[in-house]
Amino acid sequence: MSKPQLSVVKIGGNVIDNESALQAFLVDFAALEGFKILVHGGGKIATKIAESLDITAIFHEGRRITDRPMLDVAVMTYAGLINKDITAKLQALQNNAMGFTGADGNLILSEKRKNAAVDFGFVGDVVAVNADLIQVLLLQNVVPVFSAITHDGKGQLFNTNADTIASTIAVACSNYFNVNLLYCFEKKGVLMDSENEESVIKNLTFEAYRELCEQKVIHSGMLPKLENCFDALHKGVSQIGIGSPEMLKKDNSIFTLVTA
Amino acid sequence: MSKPQLSVVKIGGNVIDNESALQAFLVDFAALEGFKILVHGGGKIATKIAESLDITAIFHEGRRITDRPMLDVAVMTYAGLINKDITAKLQALQNNAMGFTGADGNLILSEKRKNAAVDFGFVGDVVAVNADLIQVLLLQNVVPVFSAITHDGKGQLFNTNADTIASTIAVACSNYFNVNLLYCFEKKGVLMDSENEESVIKNLTFEAYRELCEQKVIHSGMLPKLENCFDALHKGVSQIGIGSPEMLKKDNSIFTLVTA
Q: Which of A8, A26, A192, A232 is deepest in the core (most CB within 10 A)?
């Protein structure tokens, strides 16, 4: 028997920070057929609120350190303000959304980041996803909406990378579903020429990816993102789309389809 | 066939504001046998955060008006910070807690308060509880943890009275469960003499309540609380306990048991 379809969609701060862009995205997401899960990142609201609360962001070589006050702000804004706003808006669009952190239902267990040269503070890497409970929820027509907060099972919450949450959920759910993982970001897809927004690579297989890496067409920020994609495909995800939020529209064919 | 037991426990700010009191309460709550639901109020954290964000609390005759900035603070602290902290802590106590607002899974639908002499702003009164979905979650051994935020189904979140949330959930679930509703507050129970903390009325029936009202033994703040209790009992709740958080301890018999 073939598995049912599941779409796991990740949106980042560029969508969340823009009220009309968020609403337009949610209308498209709500219209998606089949089982679906939304994973959202943070956006600038957390930084703004931290500033208002006189909490200073600490960085090490450009990477944010999550100390306790900053974790509290992340929990307040990601799991509180943003997650519940999205949930209420999806309810208004007749999607039975339910907002989660990894602590809720022990859905995403993580552990404090290890082996890093620097202590990033309350940052967790995913250890396990409770796909059984996610499946139960999906079969109740619930649309899970995940913020990028996880827990260690010992009472501690962690800030976690939203891309990783999306891919680990996608992998864990691939036991039960044919999973289509969609990364929405600020570009229309993986570009052949980073200066040309229209140079979207429409199909990217692992073989093509290797070649483009050798030719230095794919480099810097796109490298870890695509490595994660091929890892997820290797672990059972059916296909991955990378593109703008417009990717969810039925008539849109301009995005990068990543397949094994 | 007899219905299974369900405990609906409400805690207020006095427990939430005190870290060790909260932990002690959660240990007792986690040890409760049978199906259970936790409803929590706000506490002083919201006021503190609002002050830090330079948001001025607006009051009308001693009652708080929830304007938009204050609603955002309520969502951040109640549904974010407090709810996820409690959820993570219950996970550490081997309870599969899942934190909710009313928007999540459309669990509690409300409408903006009507017919009030004053516009209280984003304050909602409960219209419906999705007891079917709550039952599904309970049967998965999920322990729902509700913050006092609801939604109108049209995308708007509302601040809602936590006592009312507890009683409406209790009533809605009484179709499926024998519901024991427990209100934890700062006293040991309903007192015969408000000056004497030990004068707890151990059993309170509607008949006894009527008499005590006539004798002016029960008055002021306790009146609406008890009216709500008898209303909930009338609508199907089996019994109601009113007392300190210690009420949850197995060997504690000092609290007020309210029955029809």
A: A8
In whole angstroms, what separates CA A251 from the centre of its chain?
A: 23
Encoded amino acid at B165, one letter: I
Instruction: State the sign of the Cα–Cα–Cα–Cα dihedral B55, B124, B19, A124.
Output: negative
Least Cα distance to A183 among A82, A38, A4 occurs for A38
Q: What is the pLDDT confidence band of residue B103, given thresholds at 50, 70 and 90?
A: very high
Exposed / middle / buried, residue A56 (Cβ in 10 Å: 0-12, 13-18, 19+):
exposed
Q: Which two tokens stand for residue A193?
A: 């020429």
CA nearest neighbour of A41 among A84, A95, A79: A79
Q: In terms of CA atoms, which chain B residue is nearest residue A54?
A: B52
Q: Do B96 and A103 touch (CB under 8 A)?
A: no
Domain assignments of chain B as residue spans, ordered by start: 5-184, 186-260
Q: In the block, which residue shows the tokens 């199906």?
A: B35
Task: Classify the C-alpha dihedral B93-B98-B101-B102 as positive or negative.
Answer: negative
> Tens digit of pLDDT for each residue in B159-174?
999 999 999 999 999 9
CATH, domain range B5-184: 3.40.1160.10
Prediction ipTM score: 0.95
Q: Which residues of B have a CB under 8 Å from any CB of A?
A: 49, 52-54, 72, 75-81, 83-85, 87-89, 91-92, 96-101, 103-106, 133, 136, 140, 142, 149, 151, 153-157
Of the candidates A81, A98, A103, the beta carbon closest to that of B88 is on A103
Q: With 0-12 CB in 10 A as exposed, 13-18 as middle and 19+ as buried, what is B208?
A: middle
What is the spatial order of strands in the sheet that B149-151 belongs to? B124-129, B108-112, B149-151, B157-159
Q: Which residue of B has its CA nearest to A98?
A: B104
- Residue with tokens 């189904």, as numbered in its chain: B153
In this prediction, residues A141-170 reach a mean pLDDT of: 97
Distance CA A174, CA A242 (A): 19
B43 appears as a binding residue in the annotation? yes
The conformation of residue A188, written as its DSSP 8-state character, comes to: S
Residue A217: phi and psi, rounded to 5, are: -70, -40
A contact test, residue of B19, B48, B81, B89 with most A CBs within 10 A:
B81
Rounded to an integer, what distance in angstroms lies between the CA atom of residue B13 and that of residue B18? 9
Sign of CA dihedral B84, B85, B91, B96: negative
- Is B42 within any annotated ligand binding site? yes
Q: Which residues of B touch A139 (CB under 8 A)?
A: none
